[in-house]
Amino acid sequence: MSINFARSLRLLPLAAFLLTACTLTQPESPGQSPSSPEWKNHQQQVQKLTRYQIRGAFAYLSDSKKLSARFFWQQSSPQHYRLMLINPLGSTELELRVQPDGVQVIDNQGKRYNGDDAQQMLLQLTGMSIPLQNLRQWMIGLPGDATHYALDDSYRLKSLNYRHDGQSWDVVYQSYSQSVTPSLPQNIELTQDGQRIKLKMDNWTLN
Questions:
Q1: What is the distance between the terminal CA atoms of the chain, rounded to a whole angstrom?
Q2: Element (DSSP H or E) covering residue 7
Q3: What is the pLDDT of residues 87-122, one digit of tens each?
Q4: Are 57 and 71 contacting, i.e. CB atoms less than 8 angstroms apart?
Q5: How many alpha carbons fall within 13 Å on the CB side of residue 184?
Q6: In what order do the strands lie in the sheet with 157-164?
Q7: Which domains does the chain have, with CATH numbers?
Q8: pTM for this structure?
Q9: How far apart are CA 163 and CA 85, in angstroms?
């Protein structure tokens, strides 16, 4: 056996490992490539949406809390939005108003709380850990701060993983609405450790 041939045999396991790794990390089709022009074009179209409204269903499930409600999201600008959670009886359970100069939360008793961190205020007042800063992007089909994500064959987000401050959020896009252009999410599920958030967008209004 020649030295070169023996060396080749020794390299085979490494080559096989590298080939397997490449197979696992390469996109399965052109539609799943984050560098595809179709995905970049879709991103650009979605990023132009600055004013819109969403009506749908919200569910929060964890070991200590379960909540189902209708929700209304009104986005007036990138830093100005409003979220309402409405109980099955039609009463407002919670209203969140975010503006450049601060955050206000109104509970079901009409009591108002003011602050500057919407996510932290929701956690303190409701016990729900919701990644609002990124959720605003995930709801319209953009990855936000997530750097690990996959696309479907229509060049839209299929799933993503976001890690921050010791937390790891997994987001799965189960379906998209075909009634709006650009195509926007219809069913999303977020999971983090022992908690799960489900969003069903029944109606999109684009301004």
A1: 73
A2: helix 3-25
A3: 999 999 999 999 999 999 999 999 999 999 999 999
A4: yes
A5: 25
A6: 112-115, 102-107, 92-99, 80-86, 66-77, 52-61, 195-206, 184-192, 167-177, 157-164, 148-151
A7: 37-206 (2.50.20.10)
A8: 0.82
A9: 27
Write the single-letter amino acid at 205: T
Sign of CA dihedral 43, 45, 50, 52: negative
Q: Which of 144, 98, 94 is nearest to 124 (CA)?
A: 94
Give the integer Cα–Cα distance in Å for 181 and 141.
Answer: 12
- The tokens for 56 are 């749908």
Summarised one tens digit per residue, pLDDT across range 17-66 is 333 333 333 434 444 688 899 999 999 999 999 999 999 999 999 998 99
CA nearest neighbour of 157 among 177, 178, 142, 135: 142
Q: Please compute, for residue 100, the number of CA atoms within 13 A of its CA located in the half-sphere on the CB side.
A: 4
Query: Which residue type, as a one-letter code, is found at position 168?
Result: S
